[in-house]
C-alpha cells in the first residue's frame, strides 16, 4: 500500500512540475524580462497566513495592497515585484503554493 502512495505522490509531483514548465514557457512568450510582475492571491483572513505570504516577497521590495472580503473571511492580496526572468515568477508561485488555503490568480 505504501508503494501505491509513493506512485501517486510521484505522479502528482510530475503533474505539478509539468504545469510549471508550461507556465514558464508561456511567460517567456508573453512577457519581456526583467520587469515588474503582479501576483494576485486570495487567502483566509488569518494574520499568520498573510504574514507567511508577505515573508516570501519581503526581500524583493514589494508593493503590496490588500482588500478584505465583504464578510471578512478572506483577504485578496496584490503584490507587485521586480523579477529578472520567468524563473523568478515560477519560484514565487511555487513558494506560495504550499500555503494552506491560498488561491493563486
From TrEMBL:
It holds the Pfam family DUF493. InterPro entries: UPF0250_YbeD-like (IPR007454), YbeD-like_sf (IPR027471). It comes from the Bacteria. This is DUF493 domain-containing protein. It comes from uncultured Dysgonomonas sp.
